[in-house]
Design brief:
By secondary structure, the protein is an alpha/beta fold. 36% of the residues lie in helices and 24% in strands. It holds the Pfam family GFO_IDH_MocA.
Length: 291
């Protein structure tokens, strides 16, 4: 069996996701898929601080991973069966980096955070739909083993009366994980959001209407945890989230096989809208931000 080819498009390749995805894909694919080509706009990150380890350039990264360097995005798309757009810490570049792939008709996975704002997210999904291109994006935390009952049965989220998510990391890079988990547990349809806190410890209250409420607390040293209350009074609490990257990779490959995204566009756009509102609410605490 000849493996089908996945192409990586990145802002620069020496970053954590690109350094791990090739091996995880190889382990999960069973010979069906391989990371075959890569292209990066820059050889090294422009914002790597003083004293940091020197980044590997594109040529070195490709040689070490056994992946061919594409001369252009167009070449990569033409020679690959599916596309991964990475740049996980620089989502402001996703729309530009993904534009040609979104016109290709080939399955495209865009890494977290999907877009820098709701408007960009909507434009990307609109372009993909116009061109018949299957498109999928998600935080890996959506696929944590503990959230599987909600991910497998999406109607269950609409029955949740309340949910609480604790998340770690800084807002710009990691808020997507917390708010994606909230979307898994509560679904879409949030009406408004407010924030309390300071420095890097913030609490976000999300009003879904009809007495339904979500709460997200984020601070860098925290683990990822969640709790959910159903309409019948039953509750669940998850002290940890596990197995999420292997499960994300399996979902990605299944998406490449079928073209059917495991996450609806409305959920991804809704998650970006929550992050938009949270960013503004941090500057205007105790004021409702309408979604």
């Amino acid at each position: 069996m000849t493996a089908r080819k996945i192409g990586f498009i990145d802002y620069f390749l020496d970053e954590w996701h690109a350094n791990n995805y090739p091996r995880w894909i190889r382990e999960a694919a069973g010979g069906r898929w391989e990371a075959a080509l890569a292209w990066a706009e820059l050889d090294a990150p422009p914002d790597r601080g003083p004293g940091a380890t020197a980044a590997r350039g594109t040529e070195q990264w490709c040689a070490e991973h056994g992946i061919e360097r594409a001369a252009s995005i167009g070449e990569l798309i033409g020679r690959c069966d599916a596309i991964v757009v990475l740049s996980p810490d620089h989502p402001q570049h996703h729309e530009r980096l993904a534009a040609e792939a979104l016109r290709s008709g080939k399955p495209v996975y865009v890494d977290k955070t999907f877009a820098p704002n709701r408007a960009a997210a909507e434009r990307m999904f609109e372009l993909a739909a116009e061109c018949g291109t299957p498109l999928f994006s998600s935080s890996a935390l959506r696929f944590a083993r503990e959230l599987e009952p909600w991910q497998a049965e999406r109607g269950r989220a609409a029955e949740s009366r309340a949910a609480f998510v604790l998340g770690g990391g800084g807002f710009d890079h990691y808020a997507v994980h917390s708010f994606e988990m909230l979307t898994v547990l509560m679904g879409t349809g949030a009406k408004r959001l407010k924030a309390y806190g300071g420095a890097e410890l913030f609490t976000y209250i999300v009003d879904y209407g009809d007495g339904r409420q979500g709460t997200v607390v984020q601070t860098p040293p925290a683990p990822f945890q969640a709790s959910c209350a159903a309409a019948d009074g039953g509750t669940a609490f998850f002290a940890e989230c596990t197995d999420y990257f292997p499960r994300l990779i399996r979902e990605m490959l299944a998406f490449f096989d079928s073209g059917g995204a495991p996450v609806e566009a409305a959920e991804t756009i809704g998650t970006m809208a929550l992050i938009d509102a949270a960013r503004l609410a941090r500057q205007k605490q105790d004021e409702w931000m309408n979604l």
